[in-house]
C-alpha cells in the first residue's frame, strides 16, 4: 500500500505535477518517513543539494535555539531515521520543533540552490504555533525548485493555514504480513499474534512492543484487571508496583488493558475505554505521573466493575 502512494507521487513528478508542499499523515510507525526519504532522494537525484532535515528535538530551550546544537541533534536523529524509519522510540515526549529551529532552517534559503532542494519536516505536528507561523511566509511563496515534505500523525493537529497550503496524502495501515516482513528486514524476530494485535497496523508500534517485552506485560495486565474488576483496587495497585515506571511502558500497559477489556467484555467496557483514553492523554501531557495513571485506572475499574 505504501508503494502505491510513492508510485502515485513519482508519476506526478515525472509529469511535472509534484507539489512543493506535501503532507503525509497517518498512524505512527507505518512508513511515512520512509516514503518521505525516498521522495526526497528522487527529487534530489540530479541535484548537488543535500536533503535538509527538520525534526523535533528535546532538551532545554536554549539548546533548541543554538545552531550548532540544533545541527548536532537533528543529524543524530536523521541518521537513526535512515537506519530504521519505522521505529517510533527516537522522538521523546518533550521534543518539539521550536521557532529558533525554524529560523535556523530558513537561513538555508539565503543561498541559491544548485538544483532541486528537498526539506523533510518529520513529526510536524510537534511544531509549536510560533514555529509554524514563522514558516508560513515561506510556505505561501515556496522558492523555485524547493520541495517541503512534512509527516504528521494527523493533519488536523497542524494549523489550518499549513494544511490548506499542502497536498495531503493519508498513508494506510500496514497488514500483518507487511509488518512481519518489515520487522524481519530490520532484524526483529517474527512477531507473535498478541504483538500483531497490539500493533494495530503499525510496524513501529510492533517494534516498540517487542523491545518492551509486551508479551510479559500482557500477563501483568490480566492479573491487574482481575484484581480491580473484583473491586480490590488496593491489590491491583500493589501488583502494578512491579511494572516499570516508564512512560512508554505505562502507555503500553494502558493500551493493552483497553485491548484486554474489549476482547473480554466488548461494548460493556466503553466507559473504561474512555477512562483509558483520558488517562493516556493526561499522562503524556504530564498532568498525571505514570503511577497516578495506573492507580487511577484501578480505582475506576473497581468502582464501575463490569
Walk me through the structure.
By secondary structure, the chain is of the alpha/beta class. It has 2 domains: 2-172, Rossmann fold (3-Layer(aba) Sandwich); 212-303. Helices cover 55% and strands 8% of the residues. The chain has 15 helices and 5 strands. It has a 5-stranded parallel beta sheet with strand order 2-3-4-1-5, with helices on both faces. Strand 3, helix 6 (129-140) and strand 4 (146-152) form a beta-alpha-beta unit. The chain starts with a helix and ends with a helix. The mean pLDDT is 91.
Instruction: Give the second-level CATH assignment, the architecture of the largest domain.
Output: 3-Layer(aba) Sandwich
How would a textbook summarize the main sheet?
A: 5 strands, parallel
At the fourth level of CATH, the homologous superfamily of the largest domain is P-loop containing nucleotide triphosphate hydrolases
* Classification by helices and strands: alpha/beta
> C-alpha Rg, in Å?
21 Å
SS strand fraction: 5-15%
Overall geometry comes to: elongated
The portion of residues assigned to helices is 55-70%
Tally of discrete structural domains: 2
Distance between the termini: 40 Å
Averaged pLDDT: 91
Task: Provide the CATH topology of the largest domain.
Answer: Rossmann fold
Spell the H/E element sequence. HEHEHHHEHEHEHHHHHHHH
Low-confidence stretches: none
Q: Output the number of helix runs.
A: 15
Amino acid at each position: 500500500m505504501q508503494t502505491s502512494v510513492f508510485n502515485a507521487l513519482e508519476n506526478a513528478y515525472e509529469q511535472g505535477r509534484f507539489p512543493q508542499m506535501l503532507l503525509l499523515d497517518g498512524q505512527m510507525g507505518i512508513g511515512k518517513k520512509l516514503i518521505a526519504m525516498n521522495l526526497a532522494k528522487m527529487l534530489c537525484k540530479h541535484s548537488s543539494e543535500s536533503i535538509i532535515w527538520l525534526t523535533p528535538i528535546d532538551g532545554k530551550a536554549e539548546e533548541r535555539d543554538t545552531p550548532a546544537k540544533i545541527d548536532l541533534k537533528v543529524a543524530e536523529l536523521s541518521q537513526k531515521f535512515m537506519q530504521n524509519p519505522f521505529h517510533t522510540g527516537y522522538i521523546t515526549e518533550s521534543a518539539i520543533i521550536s521557532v529558533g529551529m525554524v529560523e535556523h532552517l530558513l537561513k538555508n534559503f539565503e543561498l541559491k540552490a544548485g538544483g532541486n532542494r528537498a526539506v523533510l519536516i518529520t513529526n510536524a505536528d510537534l511544531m509549536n504555533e510560533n514555529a509554524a507561523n514563522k514558516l508560513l511566509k515561506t510556505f505561501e511563496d515556496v522558492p523555485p525548485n524547493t520541495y517541503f515534505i512534512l509527516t504528521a500523525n494527523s493533519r488536523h493537529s497542524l494549523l489550518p493555514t499549513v494544511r490548506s497550503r499542502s497536498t495531503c496524502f493519508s498513508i494506510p495501515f500496514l497488514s500483518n504480513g507487511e509488518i512481519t516482513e518489515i520487522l524481519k528486514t530490520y532484524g526483529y524476530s517474527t512477531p507473535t499474534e498478541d504483538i500483531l494485535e497490539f500493533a494495530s497496523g503499525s510496524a513501529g508500534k510492533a517494534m516498540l512492543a517487542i523491545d518492551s517485552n509486551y508479551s510479559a506485560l500482557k500477563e501483568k495486565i490480566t492479573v491487574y484487571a482481575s484484581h480491580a474488576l473484583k473491586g480490590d483496587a488496593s491489590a491491583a495497585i500493589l501488583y502494578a508496583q512491579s511494572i516499570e515506571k516508564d512512560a512508554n511502558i505505562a502507555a503500553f500497559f494502558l493500551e493493552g488493558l483497553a485491548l484486554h477489556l474489549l476482547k473480554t467484555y466488548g461494548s460493556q467496557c466503553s466507559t473504561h475505554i474512555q477512562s483509558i483514553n483520558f488517562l493516556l492523554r493526561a499522562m503524556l501531557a504530564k498532568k498525571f505521573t505514570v503511577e497516578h495513571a495506573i492507580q487511577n485506572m484501578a480505582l475506576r475499574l473497581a468502582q464501575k466493575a463490569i
